[in-house]
Amino acid sequence: MSAELTEAQRDARRTRARDLIEERLAETWPAWRRPGRKPNLPLAADIALDALGDLAAEILVDGTMMRALTIRDGVATLELAEATDMVRIFAAGMRGVLDGHGASNYVEMEMTDGSTGEGFTVTVRRRERPTPHEFRLRAETKVAELEKQLAEYEVMNPQQCPADKHADWLVDSEHTHACPWCRIEQLEATT
Predict the structure, then answer these.
(1) Rounded CA gap, 54 and 147, in Å?
(2) pLDDT per position as a tens digit, 80-110
(3) What is d(CA 169, CA 179) in angstroms, rounded to the nearest whole number?
(4) pTM of the predicted model as reported, rounded to 2 decimal places
(5) CA atoms of 107 and 94, how far apart (whole Å)
(6) How far apart are CA 38 and CA 115, in angstroms?
């Protein structure tokens, strides 16, 4: 495989890159266009870069990748594939995992090394969607917000009826207050 590209190959690569960028920007324009405001160009740039992910992987590899390594009867056999084919196979495999599980975002798969018993978790996610860690950060932020709201109510102190006749109630200080139900009974008795 030659390391030098012909002019036709360069033009084909440029055209493919432009088409990928154009396709992704067209799909996502409501997110970055923002009518009536300045477009979110950093987001558009990120989307364009993400669109080039597969193409960039093809460009960065040296042209060959390992397709398979098998060992039978002490003989190791290494099968190689062109990078473009391998990247396509890998991308299709990852898409197949996500689609096969009906995952809109990510799938985690548990794997165990048969020789050592060591376990691994492999996460496959769609590039433009949040990672499991980002979901965790969002959840932690929401919990912190809710805890802050709840803290307003935690300053309330439970009070008990001195006559032990009525349900407990909350007051916003630690000072003992008269039982409101006992007070209602007293007022009703005087009328």
Answers:
(1) 43
(2) 666 666 667 777 788 888 888 888 888 888 8
(3) 8
(4) 0.36
(5) 10
(6) 57
